[in-house]
Amino acid sequence: ADGMRVLYPADGAFLGAPGFPQFNGYFANRTVGGWQSRSVSALLPYFAATTILEPISIWTIPNGLSIDGRKTVIGTNRDPDTGQKVPTRVYIVDLVDGTRERVSPEPLAGDANVFPGNPNAAAQVSGSDTFDVLYYASVAQLVSDSLAPAVPATAEKLYRHEDGHLTLASWTPSGQPSPGILVDNFHDVVGRNTATGDGSVYWFTPAGSSFGYPLHRGEVGVERSAFVNESENEDVVVAPGDALFQGAAADGSRAFFTSNQALITGMQSGFSNLFMYEHSADPASDENLTLISRDLEPADGLSGGVAEVLGTSDDGEIVYFTSSQQLVSGESVAAGQKLYRWNDGVLEYLAHAAVSTSGLNIPLTSPDGRYLLFQSNSHLTSEDGGGFVQQYVFDGDSGAISCASCRSGGVNTSAAFQGDSFATFMGVTPQPRRWLSDDGQVFFHTGEPLLSRDTNGQVDIYTWKDGRLDLVSSGRGTSDARFVDAGADGGTVLFITRDQLTSSDTDLRMDLYAARIGGGFPEPEAGPGDGCQGDGCQGQSSQAPPSTDLGSRRLQGSGNPTRAAQCGRFATRIRAARRDVRRLRGRSRVLRRQARQTRAGEGRARVLRVRAVRLKRRASRRSARIVVLQRQYRGCREAAR
């Protein structure tokens, strides 16, 4: 996270790595004396081919990196002491001190190999920030609970490793062992927090379920799970069905998912809707679901549902998504994809935007949900992106959408991308790469010369923050430069290029470099045309195009103090109304639980249900009042400009 450690692959064999695998994993650690690399396979031999005729396994690349950049997980068919070929085992390797810990015991039955999930899905391994708690899925039967008759021997089971002890982590709501895999690994999702930072809460799906792939919540010390997408529809019976995990709060209290089912009373089924699950002490009896994508503008006559969920905040109070429907009353019903933000009970329409989420385009949110980075070829600002996909940033504090990659005073002639097919192929860690830093700094690469000193006609790396555009690569090299990753604060940027940027780089192969604010380690004085040097590849600053307000939130502008004070009162009333909505909904859930549990007769239960319905209606009226207050607030801010 601090940009001081990186796990990377290379197609060469050096530092004691075996020569036959197609790729080897390497670890680099930045010390006071410079970057120091070591071969991961030299610490733990893993799937090393003994002859060139032996099939090459993709397990020659380590399986992820802990948040602190210290540990990785490896599946290996080599005994680390003897080097002999053995059934596959799983180890945690400390890349700094070189120690290792075996986390998979010998199977009790069945296949002797312990593959941690599908080898093509590295993210099958997850856990606490430091891997002190580790979750992995495997077909192997490793503990006695995995031998239960209800758990097929050929199905993947979810295991938890902590303090040298392995337990089954996949359980049904009734307390029976079940198959399971972590949700972040069955689906390609944008969501985060598959497991909490301490590993105490995790989200999984029972892969062998006859009901498809429902979403479950597991918790340490509780040998049963909570059925997250269980229907709360009191009008019709809804059978258990699929749900697509879209992210969770960092503390495990909330999760977001999409489903085609009518899980709440009064809604329609057949198209994708976005729900929030809020955990409670008695999830089987409480009302835990909130419909986020509720259609409050039927005038458009559309029912297309949610197209994509773009990201969530770590506190579980903000989620961004797109839909072809107009969901907010009073906003434009013109055809096209719309961008929305749900902010703790209030849905906001942001813009008409065809958001690209395929290929090399990956929307991201900052941990606090303030910033959303997304890609679109829509005309969203006063700048002209030329009809090509460009990088856009929404700032939740100002309500403004800015184009980070648009040319100032001109028209773009090419697209700006985050990803790159080669850099993606070379990727090791399953964690999302930081195209967006925690404080809203954006990274991308493009062949478009956005600054005058970009003169090489090659792909170069840019960074943007608060309207300020900089080059990360020199703009003068003879080869493309591609973004790989960055530290959480944006102070360190990793990139690949064939250019020889240091004296130690003596070939034209693709190499990994780090650019750091303040420069890096001393290098010999550069000759003419050598471009930037080592860690110090940071360009000079320039101003990017100004941002433009779009959508239902227009919060920029200064105004006079009197008007600002008036606007502030609207904001205060909005916050108070949100607190009322949460309080009323909470009381309604309590009454409904009491109605289900009462033994005083149907009459008493009916009274409790009526009171719960009244409270829920009051909460709905307060939510509608919030929408009115927000319009008044926007009008006040417009008048203050």
Task: Summarize the structure in words.
The protein is an alpha+beta fold and 641 residues long. Among the domains are: 360-555, Beta Barrel (Lipocalin), CATH 2.40.128; 561-639. It is 14% helix and 28% strand. The strands form nine sheets. Strands 23, 24, 25, 26, 27 and 36 form a six-stranded antiparallel beta sheet that branches. A hairpin with a 2-residue loop joins β30 (460-465) and β31 (468-471). The longest helix has 38 residues, at 602-639. The chain is flat. The two termini are 40 Å apart.
Query: So how many helices?
Result: 5
Weakly predicted, low-confidence segments? 51-60, 118-123, 185-191, 421-430, 524-561
- Second CATH tier, the architecture of the domain at 360-555: Beta Barrel
Q: What's the CATH class label of the domain at 360-555?
A: Mainly Beta
Major sheet characteristics? 6 strands, antiparallel
The class by helix and strand makeup works out as alpha+beta
Helix content: 10-25%
CATH topology of the domain at 360-555: Lipocalin
Distance between the termini: 40 Å
Number of strands: 36
What is the topological layout?
Elements (H helix, E strand, L loop, with lengths): L4 E6 L13 E8 L2 E6 H4 L27 E8 L6 E10 L5 E3 L23 E2 L5 E6 L18 E6 L2 E4 L12 E2 H4 L14 E5 L10 E4 L2 E6 L16 E5 L5 E6 L13 E6 L10 E3 L14 E7 L5 E6 L14 E6 L2 E7 L2 E2 L7 E2 L5 E6 L13 E6 L4 E4 L12 E2 L3 H5 L16 E5 L13 E6 L2 E4 L9 E6 L5 E6 L13 E6 L24 E3 L4 E2 L11 H37 L4 H38 L2
Antiparallel strand pairs: 1-2, 2-3, 4-5, 5-6, 7-8, 8-9, 9-10, 11-12, 12-13, 13-14, 15-16, 16-17, 17-18, 19-20, 20-21, 21-22, 23-25, 24-25, 25-26, 26-27, 27-36, 28-29, 29-30, 30-31, 31-35, 32-33, 33-34
Helix pairs in contact: 4-5
